[in-house]
UniProtKB/TrEMBL annotation:
EC id: 2.6.1.76
Protein name: Diaminobutyrate--2-oxoglutarate transaminase
Biased composition (Basic and acidic residues): 497-508
Keyword Disulfide bond set for record: no
Keyword Cytoplasm: no
UniProt pathway: Amine and polyamine biosynthesis; ectoine biosynthesis; L-ectoine from L-aspartate 4-semialdehyde: step 1/3
InterPro entries: Aminotrans_3, Aminotrans_3_PPA_site, Dat, PyrdxlP-dep_Trfase, PyrdxlP-dep_Trfase_major, PyrdxlP-dep_Trfase_small
Record region (Disordered): 469-508
Keywords: Aminotransferase, Pyridoxal phosphate, Transferase
Family: Belongs to the class-III pyridoxal-phosphate-dependent aminotransferase family.
CDD domains: OAT_like
Top-level taxon of the source organism: Bacteria
Source species of the chain: Frankia umida
Length: 508
């Protein structure tokens, strides 16, 4: 295996001397008000390997964001660098529109071999403009063309991109408010283990999630079958198996299975957005494999390009009814991305990184639960594989009917800043941007996981002190690795999951 050899803990050659402050100042003056990560992560990366970024400030940062989940193998993995270098040295054309090339053919072979078996041997691929948003647009257009219907079913908390159609099925109100409505979208309730859309359960009750999940299924069925429900014939249902930007909310397996059955019985194409969850991120190669469902259309981007821009949809052959040119894009034939993507998919497969991700993710989730002991500001921890979140709350506030405390986005932002100060890169997401998100590369080492958890715990305490309070006294201990009995703390290995994760510490 190549994992330990590429742990990303040594600097290698010296970091180039650059004026980081000047670069950041120029960026602020030249780039748009819509920039995001640059605002909250004011660093200038100059070198990187594995899970480590070297900044122009001379510091090393442990990257638990990994390009928002794009860098499955971390920064500059040897396999990826070799694939890109060989393609460049070969003289192969780098831009080919959608023409066939040896690089594309090899990538397609590797990708098809990884697809959920239920899509069938005749599954079709369509290469899109190189972003997840464009792949979602393609999936929507395909479903609308195949069914002749226009209405889309989407979920609260969902995120599918920033272009018109993808934004229409996205739940984020703030980015939608200034814009005209785009298309007919019916919003359905996504089960949430902490902020249940139906307001059921108590914060200390781990089984509140399944209750909300069952209510969600009943609501969806009744709405779709109600002749006065106002839902015109749907073109598709769009769902994420784990809501990433929505706050790291895994769909319960039994809920996703029931949703698949609802769509099957009614002839509604099911689009599963695996832009962020795909390529072993959740502990299976595709997150739908946890539940065993097969979507009609699978949306892929991020990690499939090995760090380079690439987006593809895979779908059942019987949906392949659109006309030539129905969805095009100038940059569909990125040869470097296909070479890097093939190398990435191959390495993930050969090294069994899906199983490794499940094991290390269980340790990291248990570590987040341990951090929550005596820190009521951590209202809930959840995740699947190496896609993890911790919801930051104000425990002095009034809990809602389900026992969830108010989100505390100010404290969450301070925790992110304190983490960066300690050399840990994380991001925020979820409602009110109050969920700490961790998306480390799949090759992160066990020692790096322990280091990340230690830095995060220290950052939480420092942030709480900056707000003028101190962490609560330790809660009564629960089972090893699980939250204590204090207010607001809950653990979910997946929304509505009844199984506790493996909480044993690993040797470092």
């Amino acid at each position: 295996m190549t994992i330990s050899a590429h742990s990303g803990t040594n600097a290698g050659s010296s970091v180039p001397a650059v004026d980081a402050a000047a670069i950041l100042t120029r960026q602020r003056s030249r780039e748009s008000a819509a920039r995001t990560y640059a605002r909250t992560l004011p660093i200038v990366p100059v070198r990187a390997e594995g899970a480590i970024i070297h900044g122009a400030d001379g510091r090393r940062y442990l990257d638990c964001l990994s390009g928002a989940g794009t860098l499955a193998l971390g920064h500059n993995h040897p396999d990826v660098i070799q694939a890109i270098s060989e393609t460049l040295a070969s003289g192969a054309p780098l831009h080919t529109l959608d023409l066939a090339t040896p690089e594309k053919d090899a990538f397609v072979e590797e990708l098809r071999a990884s697809l959920p078996a239920g899509l069938g041997p005749d599954a079709k691929l369509h290469f899109c403009g190189p972003s997840g948003s464009d792949a979602v647009e393609a999936a929507i257009k395909l479903a609308q063309t195949a069914t002749g219907n226009q209405t889309l079913l989407a979920f609260t908390g969902g995120y599918h991109g920033m272009t018109a159609g993808a934004l229409a099925v996205t739940g984020n109100v703030a980015v939608k408010n200034p814009l005209p409505a785009s298309g007919s979208v019916v919003r359905l309730p996504f089960p949430h283990p902490y902020r249940c859309p139906f307001g059921v359960g108590e914060a200390s009750d781990r089984n509140a999630g399944p209750g909300g999940a069952q209510l969600s299924i009943s609501y969806i069925e009744r709405l779709l079958d109600d002749p006065l429900g106002g839902v015109t014939s749907p073109a598709a249902l769009v769902v994420e198996p784990v809501q990433g930007e929505g706050g790291v909310v895994p769909a319960p397996d039994e809920w996703l299975t029931a949703v698949r059955e609802i769509t099957r019985r009614r002839g509604i194409p099911m689009i599963v957005d695996e832009v962020q969850t795909g390529v072993a991120r959740t502990g299976r190669f595709w997150a739908v494999e946890h539940s065993g469902i097969t979507p009609d259309i699978l949306v892929m981007s991020k990690a499939i390009g090995g760090g380079q821009p690439l987006a593809v949809i895979a779908y059942r052959a019987e949906l392949d009814v659109w006309l030539p040119g129905a969805h095009t894009g100038t940059f569909r034939g990125n040869q470097l991305a296909m070479a890097a993507g093939r190398a990435t998919l191959r390495r993930v497969r050969l090294d069994g990184l899906d199983d490794r991700c499940a094991r290390l993710g269980a340790r990291m989730l248990a570590g987040l639960a341990e951090i929550s002991h005596g820190r009521p500001q951590i209202g809930h921890v959840r995740g699947r594989g190496l896609m993890l979140g911790a919801e930051i709350v104000d425990p002095s506030g009034e809990p809602d009917s389900a026992g969830a405390y108010p989100a505390d986005p100010r404290l969450a932002a301070l925790i992110r800043a304190e983490s960066l100060h300690r050399g840990l890169i994380i991001e925020l997401g979820g409602r009110h941007s109050a969920v700490i998100r961790l998306l480390p590369p799949l090759i992160i080492t066990e020692a790096q996981i322990e280091r990340a958890l230690a830095m995060l715990a220290d950052a939480v305490d420092a942030a709480v002190r900056r707000l003028g309070s101190t962490p609560a006294t330790p809660a009564a201990p629960g089972p090893p690795g699980l939250p204590g009995s204090g207010p607001g703390r809950r653990l979910h290995a997946g929304c509505g999951s009844r199984e506790r994760p493996d909480t044993g510490r690993e040797a470092t």
